[in-house]
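Journal club prep — side note

Before the paper discussion, L.F. wants everyone to see what a predicted structure for a comparable chain looks like in token form. Sequence:
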Amino acid sequence: MPIDLGAALAWEKASADEKRMLEDLQGNILKGHGREHTQNIFFHIDAKESAEGRNFIRSISGWVKSGYRQLDEAKKYRLYRQDAGAFVGLMLSASGYAALGIPDDQIPADEAFRSGLKKRQDLLNDPKVKAWDEGFQAEIHGMILIGGLDESQVRKTRRNILKIKPESVTILGVETGLAMKNKNGDGIEHFGYVDGRSQPLLLVEDINREATDNGGIDIWDPTFPLKQVLVPCPGGLLKELSFGSYFVFRKLEQNVKGFKDKEAAIADEFGLSGDEEELAGALIVGRFEDGTPVILQKTDKLIDPVPNNFDFSGDTQGNKCPFHSHIRKTNPRGDSVREFGATFGVTLEAERSHIMARRGITYGARNTKIDADGQIIELKDKPIGGVGLLFMAYQSDIANQFEFTQVSWANSPQFVKDDAGIDPVIGQGQNPTSQQQPVKWGEEAKKTIDFQGFVSMKGGEYFFAPSISFLKNL
């Protein structure tokens, strides 16, 4: 029977067809692979040797982990701490499909995917390609994602894969990711803030866990249907059971010193000190460093678990969580319905259709103080570059999800209010305007600030994660 893409999937009770679908679907799409050490290997295929390229991809497909295997192994790891080995995923760009000699009717049809990221730079207000890291300036045909429980597991898997690489396949670059966690075990990014807490949940088991153990889902429901990330995979051998997902990769470098210095300057300008000093950054990000949403309170330490069951309906003027704050810009939780619903008919379903399944990881070494469990107690240095986020996200429609989020939300000074300003973290407005910050938390008086430019896009590409049967039968 057809897979119901209009609902989340209960994988532990999967029907025979649902299990076949999961066994043909690449892992990491419906749920993150969970490894804290990664490498992204970008490659180019000599189109004159397309047969060699297809053979290389076909050989790698034996390492690619299916969604079902990933979920089953993750369950066993939780129960028995059984090491499931490395995770491997494989993505192709539109130019990669062409270099492999794939017929046009077997190339995913998404317009943005077929254009490629380089041709979308003006739309996104990205830096010119000549300013990207050198490896990303070339034509990228594919990416191999390796994840491991430790660095040696990743290196070993990479060596084994590259042993079978023909000379006609050129490695353009490798990006190494290393997850960072705070003393509470929550993932953080280089500015020091808990990251990744708000995700679309696509599996019933994860939704039930969120409802019972992680703060509830009665205010903000993270339940999303499979169609949020899955599309039919052209060329997949299981026909109506073969699916894939569009994958966006962007290397985002962070100027930590610039961000933290500006944060401190705003705290001083607004007279914030003591327990309220961290409020300056929380109003920028939308959460305190420990993950406490600033919409809920004006100090931190609301962390067990990091809350996600909230919306902004009680703060329609942005007096507690400014409209420009990063988490409000990139997941407005009903703001666009409240602002535009009556006039333009915007619905919550339409707003939610823009949400992506993010699978990013931090990169770059830091001088840290850690506890006995290896968790970060303090980020001691403030680099101006060389660290950042390897942004990765799965979706079913690049224009409607990643590009809409970046262009119409993060880059737009008018979303959702005319004077909101751009997203101070990832915004790239062509004519960026300053933001309006509450002088005091919860009060109407606002003061103009100018917080932007501390994240730089260094390169990336649009990919598709094909079904395993497609890869095995190239």
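L.F.'s comment for the group: The chain has two domains: 16-251+460-472, 254-357+416-457. Keep this in mind when we get to the figures.
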